[in-house]
Amino acid sequence: MKILCLESGGTKLVAALADLSGELLDRRIEMRSSGQTAEVTMHQLRRMGKDLSRDTTLAAVSQGFGGTVDRSLGSPTLCYHETGWDQVHAQSFLTDAFRVPVFIENDCNLAALAEYRFAVPKPADTLLYVTIGTGIGGGVVHRGKLVELGNLGEAEIGHIVVEPEGPECPCGNHGCLETLCSGPGLENLAHRIIGERTTARLIMSDFKAGDALADRVCSAAAGYMAQALAPAINLFSPDTLIFGGGVMNDNAEYLSKIRHETLPRVFPPFRTSCSERFFLSSLREDVVCQGAAIYALQRLGELDPH
Ligand code: ADP
Ligand code: ZN
User: Fold this and answer.
1) Best substitution site from 249, 255, 286 to test ligand 1's pocket, by max atoms within 8 Å of Cβ?
2) How far apart are CA 270 and CA 287, in angstroms?
3) Range 27-33 contact pairs with CB under 8 angstroms and sequence separation of 24 or more
4) CATH number of 124-281
5) Is residue 134 within 6 Å of ligand 1 at its C-beta?
6) Is 246 in the pocket of ligand 1 (CB under 6 A)?
7) For the chain, what are the domain ranges?
8) Is beta strand 240-244 parallel, antiparallel or unpaired with respect to 278-280?
9) 49 CA to middle of ligand 1, Å?
């Protein structure tokens, strides 16, 4: 018996098989076409999943979704990079296709679950996971279980407003963290500070090489990150923070800047437990499918949270 893990994000679609211990065995990756709708994505995922599980008995299907999931329906409802999710009932579509239990959760939340499980050192109790990529997302895991607080999710750290007059966000607000510190956000910030168009990748490589202008951009960005992270730490009291996503790849220098800006703003009694526990993600590309496997196995009662 296997778990079919699916991932639908802004750039790629992934189907993977996991065994009942949660280990990923095999995967298929296809790029998403720009402008593709929810319906096309679901058909593509079904084809990839069928192909991969042809000779396999499935115990469940588990999907990580790059947007908002309505937990009472068990289905995605909203996504800022893909239209049509209010028209497609992904839960019944996958149930009809595979005839096994189907679990769908926000991709960042699943990533958080995987990071908690594989973190070294292990979080004492509570992990706050933050991904900084095309967007910024968060997830909280407490004692091995995803913290699920609202029907439509929680820990949307990327949509905390850090500059009320800032750039417009796809969510409709202005100056959300994501508009200034995601990959594209950093590019906007650099344009504002340096007056030139550049890429997030270049900003980070210049910053690591000691470039003064790139350092100004990263300092400003780390300041915005701190404005959102410190209240998140005050609210959830995590003992461990893990940072993933393209912007954080091998980026210990920027992580250290974020930590340095954040800690002084944290409620002092909460500072000590997390001050030495800001880490980079260790799972990278597989993190969402890995989390999808763990989530399904926990829901099926096959895997204890720890
Ligand atoms: P997604 O968020 O779409 O799943 P990623 O987590 O890979 O994908 O994030 C993509 C974003 O990260 C892009 O905006 C890209 O510019 C940025 N990025 C990718 N690699 C790096 C890097 N080495 N340094 C800084 N930014 C990067
Ligand atoms: Zn927003």
Assistant:
1) 249
2) 28
3) 27/52, 27/286, 27/289, 28/52, 32/8, 32/82
4) 3.30.420.40
5) yes
6) yes
7) 2-109+285-300, 124-281
8) parallel
9) 26
- 2-109+285-300: what CATH class? alpha beta
Atom of ligand 1 nearest to the CA of 133: 9
Equal fold, 2-109+285-300 vs 124-281: yes
Residue 117 CA to ligand 1 centre (angstroms): 24
Residue 65 has pLDDT above 90, yes or no: yes
The predicted model scores a pTM of: 0.96
- CA-nearest residue, atom 23 of ligand 1: 201
Each residue of 16-57: pLDDT tens digit? 999 999 999 999 999 999 899 999 999 999 999 999 999 999
Q: Is 183 in the pocket of ligand 1 (CB under 6 A)?
A: yes
What residues contact residue 9 under an 8 Å CB cut-off, 6+ apart?
32, 64, 66, 107, 288
> 297 is written with which tokens?
């196995």
Output the CA 92–ligand 2 centroid distance in Å.
29
